[in-house]
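RECORD TYPE: protein structure
NAME: Glycosyltransferase
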Amino acid sequence: MRQRSRAFFAAHIIDIAVILLAICAEVFVFNMPFWRMMTSTPTHIAQGQVTLGPGLKAQGHDAAKVTDENQAWIEMTSDAPIEYLRVNLPAGHIAGDAESGVAAADDTTDVVTWTMDARQKDAGGLRSNPDSVKQYSPWYEDSQYIRIGGGMNTIRFHYQTHNGATVALSSFTVNPRMPFRLAPVRVCLELLAVLFLIAFRPGSRLYRYRFSLRDRRCAMGLTAVFLLQSAIVIVIWLLFGGNHAVPMLRPAPTGDYYDPGLYNQMADALIHGHVSLDFPVNPDLAAMANPYDTLSRQQIAAHTHSGAPIPVDVAFKNGKYYSYFGVLPALTLFAPYKLLTGMNLELGVAVLVLALLVVASSMLLLVQLTRLITRRIGAPSLGSVLLVASTMMLGYPLFIDMKKIIIHQLPQTMGVTLIMLALSCWMESTMRGLSKRWLAAGSLCIGLVVSCRPQMAFAAIIAIALFWGDIVRLWRDGRASRQAVRTELAVWAAALLPFIAAVIPALLYNKARFGSLLDFGAKYNLTNFDMAHQTFPWTHVFTYVWLYLAQPPNVQTEFPFIDQTVQPMPVWLLPQTFSYGGLFVALAPFACVLFAAIAWRRGLKRAHMNALFMTVLLYAVAVLVANAHIAGYDVRYTLDFGWAVMLMLAMYLLTADACRPCEPTTVVRRSARDPQGFLMRGIPEVDASEVRVPGAGAVQTLPQTLPAMSDISRIMTVFVVIGALCAYAFLFFSLFRTDPPILNAWLWWDVRSWFLFI
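PREDICTED:
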């Protein structure tokens, strides 16, 4: 029994250490105020002991009116150094309530904001720091504990409000006994982090089992990851308003008018048999010599006497408005919903549905890629597959995009979904001996991408790498017999005809709107700069590529610790846009292992995936440069190429994992249709332990249990796991970057209270 206990402890020492570390973090770090103030002596400072600044005029015992916002402060002094302060609100007073009169920095969020001056007991004067901001909400008790520290005895709070506002005069408790809190949300996140580390550490059992869809453990693991990723999407969607979110300003302060119902307008136009939108055209806009001149148009929008607003992010040509967004979401979602129910489809619902489809199609593509690798060099481990599945959405970056409920997401997410489906169908075609049915399905999907986001249809070049061996074989066979020629023509017809059938309607739609098959209308867009006449120097592409890939995040020392990095944008007439950080630095730092692919590309070479890897890389670079040149920087454009980066990462990690040395045991099946020896043609499905040996005609059985990882694989896995945890932490804190909206105010204040120990 003692030997078994020792063996168990030795095998699970890292797991035990992770669990103990999480427990210590919860008990001693996050609850540090409880331990520090456990023996403190609380001191009550009544309202009458608080000094009012000359900018405050007392109104009774519980309130004061702001007469000078620059001198609206309160001051208190304590004999003991103030470590923590408790705000004791007058009975019945709540923020943002006109009758109780408590000032709120934002009446919709009920936030009281102060800046703080302080001094020590023997210091000569107050230390002023306008950046030292303290906030609390009378609605949430945990927010009313304020960290002071630094041995300060005198505190002066400056109200951040306006003249004429009424503020509550609170009493305070100096150095109160702090409660011991087990915050449910925090505990759940700690539990998930512990499970993530235990499941994906290099010594985990998950890396010893080969992946196979026939194995119930593998299917259950993938299902769990899919449900968890979907839950993250839904939670973020709900936190930022869900179906009730206000997608964009309407109208904007510039006088421009954003219409979140644009896709419903497109659906109405298509149902009634025309392609132009039913917006009334402002006569002042129609009279402009250059309606695409942003500053002139905004001046007209702000001062026009016409009742017709001037919409933004629509195309304007020949006195009519058109949508330059991809039409496919209108055809597949909004128009059918309108015809079936007679009502408009809410934008928030469409955003959520397409985001969940991205998650589902990504999991499907990962399964197909794993099956393809299995047939070429053997199955990777269950742990590697689940690790990739758990990180893909971070690099897209779908989760960051869900913070905004805007129409711009719809063509992007539908385009990504179709690309994933196309690649999945093509991989199935290669695994079924060049099945024409699956080949045609993939070509149809990639053709439909043109009706979503045209530049993303460049992903069609990936088919060349996937089918290059088949293209060469068909060409050689066609030179030998007429029957082979007919077979070759049938394959090309299956590849090209569905693509052409999907692209032609998109081109005719262009012709109907703008008079040209290849004009998608971007240059007629009424947006933040003149796309029709403004040129963008290619030299600036390097700057924007840096922003997309390598911009360091703006990390701060106070909650929420993450802020946007404001960047100058010469191409936009708006002076700046924001960045959360580059893809390889902030959004998905674990993807940096791709830079080691050159040195450790043995798995890609053995799986005959070098060409596929380089083709996906070519797509990512081309779309990144095109977006940077045409539109500059916006974090949402990362989705156009982020999926390709994550696909390359999946190829790299899975092939490297599948190449662990392992001796085959028995020959189970032969296939004369695959002389190259790496595709197993004609075999619909094989067990994960079956692998073709290159150059031979036999399928050999490998042991179900994989050997231990090499040292370099362990290092790579540790880097990916730690990088993924950092990316999830970055995502979590970025959700709280702004003042809390009403729908997530409780969570904002709850998470903020976790860090009172700082």
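COMMENT: The first strand starts at residue 43 and ends at 45.
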